[in-house]
Amino acid sequence: MLNKSYQQRLEHDLEGWVKNGWVDRQNTGAILADAARGSSSTKIPAIIGILGAILLAAGVVLFVSANWQEISKLTRLLLLLAAMWFTFVVTVWLKRTSHDYLLEAILFLGAAIFGANIILIAQLYHIDNHYPDGLLFWAVGTLLITLFLRSRATLVLAFCLIVSWASIEILEFAQHPFWPFLPVWLIAAGLAYWLSFRFAIHLAFLSFMAWFFSSIDLLIKWSGFSDSETGGLIVLFLLTSFIYGLVMERKNSPLSLGFGDALAHYAISGLLLIVFFFQVETIEFDGWPATLPFVILAGFAAVLVLGTFIARSQKIFNLTDTALFLGFSTWFILSWFIPALNHLWLQAAIYLGLTIWLLIFGQKQYDKLLVILALIAFGCQVFYLYMETLGTLLDTSVFFLLGGVLLISLALGLEMLRRYLERTRDPQDSRSQEVAS
Amino acid sequence: MKKPLFIPFWVRAVTVVLVLTLALGFMVGERLKILTSGTEIVLKTKPVDPRDFFRGHYARLNFDISEIPKVANTPSMDFKRNDPVFLRLKRTSNGFWDVVYVYDHYPEQQPGSVIIRGTVKSTYSTKLRIRYGIERYFAPKAQALKLEGLTRKEIEVGVILRISPKGEAAISGLMIEGKKIHEEPLF
User: Fold this and answer.
1) Which positions in chain B touch A67 (Cβ < 8 Å)?
2) How far apart are the first and last CA of chain B?
3) B55 vs A65: CB contact, 8 Å cut-off?
4) Is-contact A373 A268, C-beta < 8 A?
5) How far A98 CA lies from chain B's nearest CA (Å)?
6) Which of A148, A204, B46, B140 is least surrounded by Cβ atoms within 10 Å, i.e. has the fewest?
C-alpha cells in the first residue's frame, strides 16, 4: 500500500516538475520504472527468509532444551556442530549461485545455531556459571560472523544479545554502571558504521541511550558531579547533538551516513522529555558548578555555539532561528543552576515557545517528524498546565485565552510574512530564470 | 591506487566457522580437563526441580556449602556481593566433604583437603550465600522430578564433583545413600 501511494505521489510530483522544466518528459518513464524496481517488494523473499530462519532457530533451541537422553552427548554435540557448519556451506553455495536474498537468513540461522551449541554444552556439562557470560560469548561469535561475512542480520542479532546481556547484568546482578557494555557496544556500533547499516546505527544509538539512562544515577555518583551539573551537561549534550545532527544532514557529510536527521530527532526528543519532566520533578539546586564540571560545561557550550554558527553559515538557521536557539539553550542550561528561573509559568512559557519555534522550523525544513514531535510536546505541556492549575480556573483560563490569541496572531503574522516574501522574491526568480535561459 | 585486499567469501566463511568451532571446542575441552584430571569429592545436596527457558528441566542443587556461617569460618573477612571466595573442604566421617575455612584468595594446598572456588551471592550478618557454578543438574523432566522426590523422602543425595587445581568444579555423577547411581559420560 505504501509503495503504491509513493508511486502515485511520485507520478503527481513528476507532472509538476516536468511543467516547471526541471525534468525532461522523456525521463519520467525511467524514473518511475526505477522507483518501482527499488520498491520494498524485492525485499519480501529476504524478509520471509529471515522469518523462516527465526523459526528454525527456535526449533533448534527447543531440540536442545528437550534434553533428549536417548542420543549420546557426543552425537548431540556433533549434530549441532554439523548443523552450524551446514549453514555456512549453504551460504557459500548461495553466494556462488547468486541467491543472495537468502544469504542473510542463513547467516542469521548459523549465528543462532552457534548460540544453541553454547546452550547445549552448558546443559551437557551442567555448567551454571554466571549465565549472562553465555550471552556475551554468543554475541562475540555473532559479531565475528558480522565482521567476516559483512552480514546485517547477524549484526541485529548481536545488538539484541548485547542488550539482553547488559540488561541481565544490570537488573539481575546489579552490575552498574556496567562498564563492560561499552567496549562490546563500541565494536558493534563500529561494525554498523562500517557496513553503512542505518537500522543498526539506530540500534546502536538506542542501546547506548538505554545503557546511559539505566545507569545515570550511578554514573552521577561515580563522577562525583551534583544533580545540577549532570542535568546541565545532559541538556548541553542533547542540544549539541541536535545542532550537529542538522549540520551533518545538510552537509551530506560522509560521517553521518544519512543519520544526521535521526540524531537531531533523538536529541530533540530527549531534550523535550527532560525539560518537561524536570519541571514536574522538583530540582535540588546545588549552586554553581565546581571547577571540573564548569570546564566541561564551558567546553560543550563552545562546541554548541560553534555548531549553531555552522548551522547559520549553512543557511539551516536564519538570524531569528540562531538567536532563538541560543536563547533557549542558555535558558535550559541556566535553569539547572538558578532557582529563580524555575517558576512554573516562566518555564511553561519558554517550553511552549520552544515547541512553537520547533514547529515553525520543522515546517520550513520539510521535517514532518520534527513538526509531530513539537506538536506532541506542545499538547503534553498544555495538558500539564491544565492539570497543574485545575482549581485556579481564572488564572488558567486567562493563560489559555491569551495563549490562544497570541498563537492565532502569530499564525496570521507568519502567513502574511510568507506572502510578502513570495511577492518580493518572484520577480527576482523569474529574472534569474530568464538570464539562465 | 592500492587495491583493497579481496578475500573470497568461501575463505571468510570457512575461517569464521572454524573460529566458532574452536571456541566451542575450547568450552568443551575446559570441562573435559576438569572431569578427567580433577580431584573427586562428594557434596551433600537437596535438589528441587524447576525449568530453564533454553536448557530445559534441571534439578536445582542446594549444597550444604551453599550457605556457610560467617562467624565460625570467616573471622576477619568482609565479603561483598560478587566477590570471589575460596573454601577449603575436607572429607567428613559420613563421606561428604564439608567446609573448614573460607578465604578471599587462593590458599596453599594441603594434603587431604581441596580448594573450591565460588562467588558470593549474598551476605548476611551471620552467613554467606555462595554459588559455585554447579547448582543446576540438567536432566529430562522425569529424572529431575525423581531427584526432587528423593529429598522429600529424606534420602541423602550426594553430588560427585571433580575439582580442578584452580578450584573450578564440574559435576561428574550422583550418589544416593552412599551409592554411586550415575556417572556422567564424558561424551
Assistant:
1) 55-57, 138-140
2) 54
3) yes
4) yes
5) 12
6) B140
pLDDT, tens digit, 9 for 90 and up, residues A390-416: 556 556 667 677 777 777 877 777 777
The three cell numbers of residue B49 are 526441580
Q: Measured between alpha carbons, how far is A407 from A144 in angstroms, rounded to an integer?
A: 56
Domain count, chain B: 1
The span from the CA of B31 to the CA of B185, in Å, is 12
> Does the beta-carbon distance from A126 to B138 stay under 8 Å?
yes
Interface of B with A in 8-67 (CB under 8 A): 9-10, 12-17, 19-21, 23-24, 27-28, 31, 35, 52-58
Span of A120-124, B62-66, B71-75 with lowest mean pLDDT = B71-75
Omega before A177 cis (within 30°)? yes
The phi, psi pair for B118, rounded to 5°, reads: -140, 180
Asked if the structure places residue B166 within a domain, the reply is yes
Amino acid letter, residue A397: S
- Whether residues B55 and A64 touch (CB distance < 8 A) is answered with yes
What are the angstrom distances between the C-alpha of B186 and each of A84, A233, B33? Answer: 22, 57, 10
CA atoms of B61 and B170, how far apart (whole Å): 13
Question: Mutation test of the interface with chain A: which of B55, B146, B182, B184, choosing the one with the most A Cβ atoms within 10 A?
Answer: B55
Q: Among all residues of chain B, which has the CA nearest to that of A81?
A: B21
Q: How many CA atoms lie within 13 A of B163 on its CB side?
A: 24
Segments making up each domain of chain A, as ranges: 1-38, 225-388
Whose grid coordinates read 539506530? Answer: A202
Burial class (CB in 10 A: 0-12, 13-18, 19+), A391: exposed
Res A39: pLDDT: 53
Residue with cell 554468543: A138
CA A380 to chain centre: 21
Whole domain around residue B101: which residue ranges? Answer: 9-183
Contacting residues for B126 by C-beta, under 8 A, at least 6 apart: B69, B70, B71
CB contact under 8 A, B23 and A141: yes
C-alpha distance from B23 to closest chain A C-alpha (Å):
9
Average pLDDT, chain A: 83
User: Where does residue A246 rank: exposed (0-12), middle (13-18), buried (19+ CB within 10 A)?
Assistant: buried
Give the chain A residue whose CA is nearest to the CA of B7: A148
| Strand, helix or coil for residue B172 | strand
Q: Which residues contact B165 (CB under 8 A, 6 or more apart)?
A: B38
| Average pLDDT of the residues of chain B | 84
Residue of chain B minimizing CA distance to A147: B16
Closest by CA position to A152, among listed A116, A191, A109: A191
Between A279 and B133, the higher pLDDT residue: B133
